[in-house]
């Protein structure tokens, strides 16, 4: 592929942009994306972004992509390829589990700290008020 022009007006769970980058082996084609697409945030630095309603801008982008020097194509492709190969579903799942584990541990420590605090006040006549943004506990 020399140039891939993806300017769909509706955006969903479309992985075409990522698949195009992943499938490029030797050609290192240039990706032109709709600037409003979700993929523009992740692949925008390696792609040419256009407003699909501006036909002059789209036309100029196609010309720019076709005339792009091989070194610049390679640099853009490498940027996008690195993103596609490091931001995988596996990486997302591992990060989610890691943060979920950290959050669970923090909540457990907070709960144990509250229990300790409540136990200290059990033998006193002082009121204990524990408040957060969504919980108020009066003991």
CATH homologous superfamily placement of the largest domain: Glycogen Phosphorylase B
Task: Please give the alpha-carbon distance between the first and last residues.
Answer: 69 Å
CATH class of the largest domain: Alpha Beta
Number of helices: 5
Class derived from helix and strand content: alpha/beta
Please give the order of strands in the largest beta sheet: 1-2-3
User: SSE string, helix = H, strand = E?
Assistant: EHEHEHHHEE
Question: What is the typical, i.e. mean, pLDDT?
Answer: 81
For the structure shown, list the relevant keywords.
two-stranded antiparallel ribbon, alpha/beta, 5 helices, 13% strand, elongated, 5 strands, three-stranded parallel β-sheet, 139 residues, 2 domains, Rossmann fold
Offer a concise description of the structure:
With 139 residues, the protein is of the alpha/beta class. It is built from five helices and five strands; from the N terminus they run E-H-E-H-E-H-H-H-E-E.
Describe the protein in words.
This protein folds into 2 domains: 3-87, 3-Layer(aba) Sandwich (Rossmann fold), CATH 3.40.50.2000; 90-138. Helix content is 55%, strand content 13%. It has 5 helices and 5 strands, in the order βαβαβαααββ. It is of the alpha/beta class and 139 residues long. A hairpin with a 4-residue loop joins strand 4 and strand 5. The chain has helices at residues 16-23, 39-43, 55-67, 70-86, 89-121; strands at 3-6, 30-34, 48-50, 129-131, 136-138. Strands 1-2-3 form a 3-stranded parallel sheet, sandwiched between helices. Strands 4-5 form a two-stranded antiparallel sheet. The model has no long low-confidence stretch (mean pLDDT 81).
